[in-house]
Design brief:
With 306 residues, the protein is α+β, with helices and mostly antiparallel strands. It contains seven helices and 15 strands. The chain has a six-stranded antiparallel beta barrel. A hairpin with a 6-residue loop joins strand 1 and strand 2 (19-28).
């Protein structure tokens, strides 16, 4: 048995062949990739030293390639570089890795210097990785994923075409209600949420929209003939959530209240000027809809305190 950093160790039932447990290999003890391995288990996020038995096998996540003729600034961390890898077939541009790293770093409130220090790499290399289409070594990705509390596969965008929540449930989960203040904080100032509406033919529909929060109102742009426009002048439900696939935890916030079309020209101009992003769907979407929540609730799921 031989493995690379980032491969999956899968343990199957000898009787049925069904997967009993799986985890990401984050540490090798032999340069030739033979056991034992340091494995972060997907069901507990714990790291253990594993000597695989006959019911275990390796699921590769990458293919090796030769080093490029012109290399970017080198990662000078103290972990030995075992191989340089190309993205899996069908994955996004290598530059997308840097964008994912930068987004998660900012979400966690880390400066580049803090992040580089924890990942044992040069701040200049981290800047290059975040700003250019770099192709980092697998060892570098493993360190970055460890600092960010995610996986190499997630940084590569391996689950981009999969619905969230396909990971294993926590062994000891805790589901708790959120206070209105925390719900407002999680709504933040903007993002992508889902609005639930009844269409003209009376059927229910749920539509994703780019939204902003302005003076406690949730506002979004749409086209007058779109499904989302059916929210106007009705009571609607608006939901936003976040799932941490690596840690099998997340939260959701639900806002319920009347929606109305913003008709004041000055208000429309102000909303357009301060919008954080144009609608991702593109096209002419100049109709602003405002939702003023009369109910704001939320829940968070995470590991129970023990």
């Amino acid at each position: 048995m031989r493995a690379h950093l980032g491969d999956q160790l899968v343990v199957e039932s000898p009787a049925t062949g069904a997967t009993r447990r799986d985890g990401e290999i984050i540490g090798l003890h032999h340069a030739d990739g033979t056991p034992p391995y340091d494995v972060r288990w997907s069901d507990t996020d714990e790291v253990t030293l594993v000597f695989p038995g006959p019911d275990a096998h390796i699921r590769p996540l990458h293919h090796e390639r030769a080093p490029a003729a012109h290399e970017p600034p080198q990662d000078t961390g103290d972990m030995t570089t075992l191989s340089r890898t190309a993205p899996p077939p069908g994955s996004a541009n290598p530059g997308d890795i840097g964008r994912r790293v930068a987004l998660e770093r900012r979400r966690q409130g880390l400066s580049r210097e803090e992040m580089a220090g924890r990942a044992r790499m040069s701040p200049d290399y981290l800047a290059y990785l975040e700003e250019r289409p770099a192709d980092p070594t697998l060892a570098t990705l493993v360190r970055l994923a460890d600092v960010l509390g995610t996986t190499v596969a997630a940084l590569r965008g391996g689950g981009i075409d999969l619905p969230p929540g396909q990971g294993h449930a926590l062994l000891h989960p805790e589901l708790r209600d959120l206070a209105p203040e925390e719900c407002r904080s999680l709504l933040s100032t903007h993002g992508v949420g889902r609005v639930s509406v009844s269409t003209a033919d009376g059927r229910p529909a749920v539509v994703p929209v780019n939204y902003d929060v302005v003076d406690d109102a949730i506002v979004f742009r749409t086209a007058p003939d779109s499904v989302a426009a059916a929210a106007a002048e009705r009571e609607v439900a608006f939901e936003v959530d976040h799932v941490d696939e690596a840690l099998s935890q997340g939260w959701s916030v639900l806002a319920v209240g009347p929606a109305s079309v913003v008709t004041d020209p000055a208000t429309v101009r102000a909303l357009t000027r301060r919008a954080h992003t144009p609608p991702w769907a593109g096209g002419e979407r100049e109709m602003w809809v405002s939702i003023r929540p009369t109910s704001l609730t939320g829940r968070r799921i995470g590991p129970a305190e023990r």
